[in-house]
Amino acid sequence: MKNPLAIAAAAALLAAPAHAADKLHLYNWNNYIAPETVKRFEALCKCEVVQTYYSDNEELLAKLAAGAKGYDVLVPTANVVQPLIKGGQLKPLDKAQLPNLKNVDPAYMNTPFDPGNQYSAPYAMSTTILGYNDEKMKELGLPTDTWAVIFDPKYLEKVKGRVTVLDSSSELFAAALKYLGYSANDTDPKHWDEAAALIKKAKPYWAAFNASSYIKELTVGNIWLVHGYSNDIFQANLDAQAAGRKFHILQGVPKEGAVLAVDNMVIHKAAPRPDLALKFINFMLDGKNSAELTNLIGSGNPNLDAQQYIKPELLKYPAIFPPKALQAKLEQLQDLTPAQRRLRNKLWTEIKASK
Amino acid sequence: MRRRSPWLCACALAAYAFLYIPLVIVVVYSFNDSRLNAEWVGFTLDWYRKLFQNDEMLTAAGNSLLIGLTASVVSTVLGTMAGMAMYRYKLRLLPLLVLTPIAIPEILMGVSLLIFFVMLNITLGLVSVALAHIAFCIGFVAIVVRARLAGMDESLVEAARDCGASPWQTFRYVTLPLIMPGVIAGALMAFTLSIDDFVITFFTAGAGTVTLPLQIYSMIKIAVTPEVNAVSTLLMLLTLLLIVVASRLSPNLLRSDQETAP
Amino acid sequence: MPARASGRLNKWLVSGPPLVYLLVFFAIPTLIMAFASFRTPGEFGGLAPLYDESGKLDLNVESYTRFFSETVYAQVFVKSVGYALVTTLACLLLAYPLAALIAKSPKKYRDLLLLLVILPFWSNFLIRIYAWMIILGPNAALARGVNGALAWFGAQPVPLLFSSFAVLVCLVYVHLPFMVLPLYANLEKHDQALLDAAQDLGANAWQRFWRITFPLSLPGVYAGAALVFIPALGIFAIPDILGGPNDTLIGNLIKQQFLETRDWPFGSVLSIVLTAAALALAGLAAWIGRRQTGGGGAARA
Question: What CATH number is given for C72-299 in this structure?
Fold first, then answer.
């Protein structure tokens, strides 16, 4: 008479591997996929989606550069896809399994960093723009459609101590370069010096370099003007209305242009389940699924098929769905060479250490 | 009869107030009817409700507790040994190895441990995180235990030896009770460090391994909702409960005033 | 077994396990990265291969020369030392009465009081900092009170949040238990009989504290100072979240090297300098401490 416990244990052991293998490891930003979408995919593929999060592209890069494995799908921004491709960290996409790729707006396909979209499929996008408290800006009579309002002391005087800028050298330099009339990807050291000087002059008026808590402070009314991401600013307005504030948090798209950040789905070269990864990517390229994220957080959407499912009021925001005229002024950031990164870091450190 | 200086009491109370005012805000805001941790809007129990439906957060909290308990137990044992060794013997390598993890920037330690684990083909997961935590907690325990030992009355130890006690017996019945406050202090520190660590955990965690700090820091750019306040409040209460229960079950373990009969 | 051999065996039994653990899980990984300070950063991040195309060993001291030639890094470093020193002193001032009170309390309350000190730190770091942002916010009671008083004197309002003050307050807050616990562990064993004897001989409260209690507590003070000063040197999260535009510390710089700039060798150099300086300062303090307690002839029971 065999031990029933042993039989049960054996059965459990046999059953476990089959179940454990059907997992898709998604390494993504937090709150960057709607829960309903995940559930629908899990039902469709009869697998489990295990999500791990990062809050910064660079964290992702550092972890992968040190050799971490076990992730299937990653969602890096374009300027990070570049080093990932060049560093041989990604698996090429099997286009035959991605019929939905045709849904993506051709304007966002075939980029310089991934010609022919061999490795990446566009997921969602955001712009780095101005966010402001409409009441305060009207009161002070400040413009909201130019970078001058965060760089020019004659405007900054009126909002001294109530402005924050992103704590990112690439974003801030891009804004400064655009304001000075150069391309955001300009690598001329002389132009960089000009940008650094501009930033140093404006720094005494800023409250902080902040990439994490500025949205909170904007919503509460402690901060009146920020250099930030369109998704966050959109969300801040929702929070402000929910808290019963009398003011609105609006997005200000500078006329000099801004940075466009397109996040892409890629497959890690050591992905345990590339088949599930491809299924997932194709699933997310379907308009209905893609639209769910936009409706949730107000992110931009490069998927044409998704437009019909997106809430109509969102389509009117130029920061989320830039019209053709604005698209020409938006630039995607490119990666820098090590020597350029070092120079940038030296300038950035000097800026931070300056009085 | 001990006369306690009122001045001392006042200063200590001020220090407790300094420690607790932010905590009161944390707990109160867990009932805040606003997504942001920024100002009071209204009362709600929603966040606790959401928390209990949030499998990810609960798993993360569970993992943090598990790793914290493991790391603090192992690092307390190893750290006590290290502290005693550093006090008793003239060592050169151990003090350096014990002190450096405290000094070294977390990000360097995190990246180097990740590279090391990858080199050895160790699968990243809860175990790799625990191993990393133990490495940086040992130092804290060792330093506290050594400080406790400094100026300890050696005559008690000598007396025990003279009575024929073996080194283990001397340790168990004489030394250990004398250094127990230091050991407890070290264990508390190690646990605190472990459940709140982010940087090293980020690099040494595997795909799908989440601890509470990892979960919470990933929310930093969107909104650290009151759900985090709720889980923190509950975690604090749970840990407090565990300790109270443990000290009730083994009251002699934590006593520092044992009159040890040799 | 002869006494000396058993003594040596005991020494290895006690020091062995922690030694081995730290060698494997700390020393070796760290040496790998310390070695990286002599390598070149990889084109796309991480490190360049050890042997370049021609098969030659690719080692250089470029990163070190950069650190020593560009003074801005040393500037930030000095500022971080300043912040860490202030934090340590403030922690000491706050922690001493607290630890003393707990140590003098009746035994059945001691563990509870100690637990109460550390309990707040089992909540998450981030929301504790957010709580401070609420306390120090421009519309909160504290800021309004301070600025109201300043206005009364005709001075300009100061921001409490996004400033060095906010950074220091949070630094002290976060490190306080690490000063309280070692101090308590030391103060707890002070013999009240010594103090009573001194009182009988006519010493007042201040004299009893300064001539007896404080010198006896020095090992605890140094332990606490080490456990506060050294970690405080490398902190980066607090300036990131509520620091002002001028509050960049060496911890922030090191983080930038590993993440934004992807210059691991330089990050390694900064880390080595930081660690070496921290250890040197700790060693210096310990040496001074040994000389003082040796010369002062502290009373031994």
Answer: 1.10.3720.10
